[in-house]
Amino acid sequence: MAGSPCPIEVMKKVQSQMNMGEVTIAYGMTETSPVSTQCATDDPVERRVSTVGQVLPHLEIKIVDPEGRAVPRGAPLVSLTASGPLRPPHAPRTMPASWRMT
């Protein structure tokens, strides 16, 4: 599932009533693959609905401040995903063209 947060009650109903026990949560943008991160099918349901999972093998993701500098955990951030050659017009000038603001 993707698009917005999934309440645990909804995930449990999907798993039991729709017989979809391996459904996962994913996050991404059409411009970057479209899925950038995803939970694993063996993650407990509580974890699946509380995170967007791990970065998929075909991508790189870095967390930066509004000026494009890498930031430590817990700091205010902008998420960037390596993708195509275009830089969005609102991106920091220091951001390389191969990274996309997500």
Report a brief summary of the structure.
By secondary structure, this protein is of the alpha+beta class.
Number of helices: 2
- Biggest sheet layout: 3 strands, antiparallel
Structural class: alpha+beta
Strand adjacency order, main sheet: 1-2-3
Describe this structure in words.
The chain has about 100 residues and is of the alpha+beta class. The protein folds into two domains: about 1-55, no CATH class; about 60-100, no CATH class. The protein has helices at about 10-15, 45-50, and strands at about 25, 35-40, 55, 60-65, 80, 100.
Write the layout of secondary structure elements.
Elements: H1 8-17, E1 26-27, E2 37-38, H2 45-48, E3 54-55, E4 61-64, E5 78-82, E6 99-101
Antiparallel strand pairs: 1-2, 2-3, 4-5, 5-6
